[in-house]
Design a protein that fits this description.
Chain B: Pfam families: CTP_transf_1 (PF01148). Chain A is mainly α and about 425 residues long. Chain A has a domain of about 280 residues. Chain A contains 19 helices and 6 strands. Chain B is mostly helical and about 350 residues long. Chain B is built from 16 helices and 6 strands. In chain B, the strands form 3 sheets. Chain B has a two-stranded antiparallel sheet with strand order 1-2. A two-stranded antiparallel ribbon of chain B has the order 3-4. In chain B, strands 5-6 form a two-stranded antiparallel sheet. The model of chain B has no long low-confidence stretch (mean pLDDT about 70). The chains are: A mainly alpha (about 425), B mainly alpha (about 350). Chains A and B meet through helix 1, helix 8, helix 9, helix 15 and helix 17 of A and helix 1, helix 5, helix 6, helix 12 and helix 14 of B.
């Protein structure tokens, strides 16, 4: 058929150009270690030097992590946002490098515009939920939130039309590739960061424990692999070993248990973040839910003989932390393999050179992104009930007869449960 | 109604198949059998996720009765995510060194296709549940626009519209716009009379089927409008009775005429970029299913967004369902707040203090 032969001809061109780009690998990122470190470590052998650089930067990042936790939820949100922007930037730059599409300036603008739109949409949805009372007060905010979906969609449409109008005959295929690339990147990066913020609002512990588990798994697997590594894990990443994988798994579970024990004691980590409209700031003050109250558990017989205790006092949250750590250890590495395969496919060594010794931001966060989705899904399925203020908000927009109907149903339900004494007429 | 849902599903599957096949041809990745399986698997996962969310909302009463369904619904997100993860891990494990780049391309291709097709079809079904008119009118507006733009272009076409599609002309565009608005107006008038089209689709558990019976909302009740002066002079009528819905139909038709063609241009650019004439050969003379539906997909999103912003309030049964899941203290708080609100509005007579 005519179309098939045409496709074949073009297909050959496509694979030709691909093989051409494959034969000329993209420039390997240079070693960016700051001068200071270089001088301090100049007398060590290259292998250990690399180890030290990575180690120091790891500690620096962990310290940074602690600092931003200390600074509170608002700062955390901003940091997540910045990380997201940087990741997006890194991946888009790779796309440009791969496709040599520097000479399509429209497309840079469009990619950032789409990033803005999607962020606006997501943050609008979150803001409407959590800042409900604040939003109702301010007139312009109320209009924005009521027509939020419409406004976001219009903004997206404008970007879409600009894309269609900017299609240039010579570069069609390239432009469609970049369009697809941008959208997949948005899908991965923006949804994840949005879910991270959602988790954060549930309580900072839901943000801190998963991220620390992934970091811990990374570090432990590396350590175990370094000292005991022998059997390679997967062809894709020759440096990973089964010993590292399993050792990291156990270490992370233990770490998760200990960390959640420590953190469950503090209100500021455990309570959902709420916006207090009187003080106009975020507060984390509440009555800790059941999850975070010590309970007695009977140890099953088999462990009883080992540890010699009859019962143990734990937070129920620690049981959840086992699930979280397990996920971090088992599936997190898959995120890393995915990123390694991606780097291998596009012949790049690191995503960028932002952190010396570690490559770009994306390198650090590749394992995280599946974790964020998992935590959100976990919370939605097992922990969280619907948000009461959101329900009130929805209720108030219903029609009066629907409101009455719901009210009556709720009333009979509460009377059934014995929470209300039956009242007189309400018809 | 059920038939419509199935048709939408069938179309979605076919569109997905067409686009994926193009991807295979472009990248010559026939020899990666794993990937075919994985693409279809992801399609299944995403559909499961979306339909589960819808089913949970609309079949709330039915679901509460069946024990297994209840279990599935409660852990729905978790199950969908686990399924997706399994597919993701299979993808990572299936990465072959030689074909890395190709595999990533196909992975991305699959995901973008899913994003476009499955979300659209899901939104179409949601709009359908609002009332069949929300499904019929937008789709017919787009089809009408296609046809009338073609006719106008055929008879009067002179100035080309865009380099991308040399066959489209400005005359066709504008002519199509006006005729679609008029068509939408008339079709809305005709359809608004029938309860069958206008009512939200509900699932009645006693009858075990879909029911479209209700008190038509204000949108679908004739109202008198005073005409603005200049129209008064033209039509020589003081007032006209219209369905408010017809005003919305003008908005829908406008969107169909103005933005729908952009979907068509997008698809034309896509075909031009990948050097294919039609998406497939399913319909003789028209090309594949995707050719017919390329303009529709932005429309579906628009209708959904429109309904969400301007028409629909939250679904009462969903609100109730969520209320019943809350903890008793929260329920009591909400109850008190609601009571105050309803008394203020005069819907409730003030009762004795509880």
């Amino acid at each position: 058929m005519e179309s098939e032969s045409e496709a074949k001809v073009d297909g050959e061109t496509a694979s030709d150009s691909e093989s051409r780009t494959e034969s000329a690998p993209l420039p390997v990122s240079a070693d960016d270690t700051p001068e200071v470190l270089n001088r301090a470590l100049s007398n060590l052998s290259s292998r250990w030097k690399n180890w030290w650089v990575r180690g120091i930067l790891t500690l620096a990042m962990i310290a940074f992590f602690f600092i931003i936790i200390y600074l509170g939820p608002m700062v955390l949100m901003i940091i997540v946002m910045c990380v997201q922007i940087k990741c997006f930037h890194e991946i888009i730059t790779i796309g440009y490098n791969v496709y040599h599409s520097y000479d399509l300036p429209w497309f840079r603008t469009l990619s950032w515009y789409f990033l803005l739109c999607v962020n606006y949409f997501f943050y609008g949805e979150t803001v409407t939920d959590y800042f409900f009372t604040l939003v109702q007060r301010e007139e312009p905010l109320r209009i924005l939130s009521k027509y939020h979906r419409f406004i976001s969609f219009t903004l997206y449409l404008i970007g879409f039309c600009m894309f269609v109008l900017s299609l240039v005959k010579k570069h069609y295929r390239l432009q469609f590739y970049m369009f697809g690339w941008t959208h997949v990147t948005l899908l991965i990066v923006v949804t994840q960061s949005h879910l991270v913020i959602h988790n954060l609002f549930e309580g900072m512990i839901w943000f801190i424990v998963p991220i620390s588990c992934v970091i811990c798994n990374d570090i432990m697997a590396y350590m175990f692999g370094f000292f005991f590594g022998r059997t390679p894990l997967i062809k894709l990443s020759p440096k990973k070993t089964w010993e590292g994988f399993i050792g990291g798994f156990f270490a992370t579970v233990v770490f998760g248990l200990l960390l959640s024990y420590v953190m469950s004691g503090y209100r500021c980590f455990v309570c959902p973040v709420e916006y207090n409209n009187d003080t106009n700031s975020f507060t984390v003050d509440c009555e800790p839910s059941d999850l975070f109250r010590l309970q007695e558990y009977n140890i099953p017989g088999v462990i009883q003989s080992v540890i010699g205790w009859k019962t143990v006092r734990m937070y129920p949250f620690q049981i959840h932390s086992i699930a979280l750590s397990t996920f971090a250890s088992l599936i997190g590495p898959f995120g890393g393999f995915f990123a390694s395969g991606f780097k291998r496919a596009f012949k790049i060594k690191d995503f960028a050179n932002t952190i010396p010794g570690h490559g770009g931001i994306m390198d650090r966060f590749d394992c995280q992104y599946l974790m964020a989705t998992f935590v959100n899904v976990y919370i939605a399925s097992f922990i969280r009930g619907p948000n009461p203020s959101k329900l009130i908000q929805q209720f108030l927009t219903l029609r009066p007869d629907q409101q009455l109907h719901i009210f009556n149903t709720l009333q009979s339900h509460l009377i059934d449960k014995g929470m209300l004494t039956s009242t007189t007429e309400d018809e | 109604v059920l038939m419509l849902c199935f048709s939408v599903l069938g179309i979605q599957v076919k569109c997905f198949h067409e686009i994926i096949t193009i991807g295979y041809r472009v990248y010559h990745s026939y020899d990666l059998p794993w990937f075919r399986t994985l693409s279809w698997y992801f399609l299944l996962c995403v559909n499961y996720f979306f339909y589960g969310e819808t089913v949970a909302d609309y079949f709330a009463t039915f679901v509460q009765r069946e024990e297994q369904l209840q279990f599935l619904i409660r852990y729905h997100r978790f199950i969908s995510f686990a399924l997706y993860l399994a597919g993701f891990c299979m993808f990572v494990l299936s990465l072959v060194k030689k074909h890395c780049r190709l595999q990533f391309y196909m992975f991305a291709w699959t995901h973008v296709t899913l994003l476009i097709i499955v979300t659209q079809s899901h939104l179409v079904i949601q709009s359908l549940f609002e009332g069949m008119i929300w499904f019929l009118l937008p789709i017919s507006s787009v089809i009408c626009n296609d046809i009338t733009a073609y006719l106008f272009g055929f008879f009067f076409g002179r100035t080309p519209l865009i380099k991308l599609s040399p066959k489209k002309t400005w005359e066709g565009f504008i002519g199509g716009f006006f005729s679609t608005v008029v068509f939408g107006f008339i079709a809305a008038y005709v359809l608004s009379k029938y309860q069958y089209f206008v009512c939200p689709v509900e699932y009645r558990s006693d009858v075990n089927s879909f029911v479209t019976e209700c008190e038509p909302s204000e949108l679908f009740q004739l109202q008198n409008y005073s005409l603005p002066p200049f129209l008064k002079a033209v039509l020589r009528q003081e007032r006209v009775s219209l369905y408010p819905f017809q005003i919305h139909s003008i908005a829908l038709s406008t969107f169909a005429s103005l933005i729908g063609p952009f979907g068509g241009f997008f698809a034309s650019g896509f075909k031009r970029a990948f050097k294919i004439k039609d998406f497939a050969n399913t319909i003789p003379g028209h090309g594949g299913i995707m050719d017919r539906f390329d303009c529709q997909y932005l429309m579906a999103t628009f209708v959904h967004v429109y309904i969400a912003s301007f028409i629909r309030g939250p679904n009462p049964s969903k609100v109730l369902q969520q209320l019943l899941v809350l903890q008793p203290e929260h329920q009591l708080n909400i109850y008190k707040t609601l009571k105050i609100h309803l008394i203020e509005k005069g819907i409730l007579q003030p009762a004795l203090k509880v």
